Amino acid sequence: MATVTTRDGTEIYYKDWGPKHAQPIMFHHGWPLSSDDWDAQMLFFVQQGYRVVAHDRRGHGRSAQVSDGHDMDHYAADAAAVTEHLDLRNAIHIGHSTGGGEATRYVARHGEPSGRVAKAVLVSAVPPLMLKTDANPEGLPIAIFDGLRKALAENRAQFYLDVASGPFYGFNRPGATISEGTVRNWWRQGMMGSAKAHYEGIKAFSETDQTEDLKAIGVPTLVLHGEDDQIVPIVAAAPKSVKLLRKGTLKTYPGYSHGMLTVHAAVLNAEILAFVKG
User: Fold this and answer.
1) Cα(91)–Cα(193) distance, integer angstroms
2) CATH number for position 111
3) Which residues are part of the catalytic machinery?
4) What are the strands, taking DSSP E only, across the chain?
5) Based on the number of CB atoms within 10 Å of its own CB, is 137 exposed (0-12), middle (13-18) or buried (19 or more)?
């Protein structure tokens, strides 16, 4: 397996497909998944002539199940280790959900200062802040995230099955067409990772305020969000992010779920390709 070792000794697994001279697109996956969640996008963009790269976050997928560092700072630094190891330049960084937070912090603190980033795409992403606070009344109460931690600790396997077969893809909506393979693949990816990394990752994706990260990003950034997202409700996410970005563009999708990259891959791939080429 292709891996890079970070400064703190963590082994990070990555995929690197396509011509090495082509413009790179790097994908940042959601919680509690792995780079496999980008299959539909990586296959599409490599066929369009791009170099596509994706890594498994520490404690997720095939990366090391280390005890520490399950926070946005380490996530972004690990992504930077991959980009530096592969010497990715003029890259497009695309992040989904928690990966949107990771991509945001990477671009703001590592990628743009080093001149490695051309554009960014945030899909169903957690920034600027999921948690409800006095300054963020549209966010979700801490009790929601405490409930996620409780369910994970008590029966992670059943919890992951419930998320994948229910709200993540909108399979709990009346008339939804449920894909058993999609549910099983989500569960498979989740169960490959570390329970500790996933447990502590809930705090990372829900309580990290990325307002300043968004303000620091100067490259063109496309923000995409489903209007029926039950995991990262749109009201506290995409519209707020695009107002903080200096060159942000917002596109929303009526009826689309949090997992729209998978269940509506053709629509999202075309949207992203147009932005990348534009």
Assistant:
1) 27
2) 3.40.50.1820
3) 97, 229, 258
4) 3-5, 11-17, 24-28, 51-55, 91-96, 117-123, 221-226, 248-253
5) exposed
- Identity of residue 225: H
- The distance from CA 74 to its chain's CA centroid, rounded to whole angstroms, is 15
Closest CA to 168 of 191, 186, 145: 186
Q: What is the sign of the dihedral through the CA atoms of 10, 14, 19 and 24?
A: negative
Tell me the three state secondary structure of residue 116. coil
- Report residue 231 as tokens: 């995991």
202 pLDDT above the threshold of 90: yes
Are 125 and 231 in contact by the 8 Å Cβ rule? The answer is: no
Residue 82: pLDDT band with limits 50, 70, 90? very high
Mean pLDDT, the chain, rounded, equals 98
In the beta sheet, which residues pair with residue 250?
Answer: 223
Cα three-residue angle 108-110-116, rounded to 5 degrees: 100
**Domain with 114 in it:** 3-277
The tens digit of pLDDT for each residue in 226-263 reads 999 999 999 999 999 999 999 999 999 999 999 999 99
Do the beta carbons of residue 94 and residue 28 sit within 8 Å? yes
- CA nearest to 231, candidates 170, 162, 188: 170
Question: Number of folded domains in the chain?
Answer: 1
Residue type, position 163, single letter: V
| pTM reported for the whole predicted model | 0.98
The CA distance from 259 to 164, in Å, is 9
Percentage, residues of the chain above pLDDT 70? 100
Listed residue (18, 99, 100) closest to 60, CA to CA: 99
Report the Cα 180 to chain-centroid distance in Å. Answer: 22
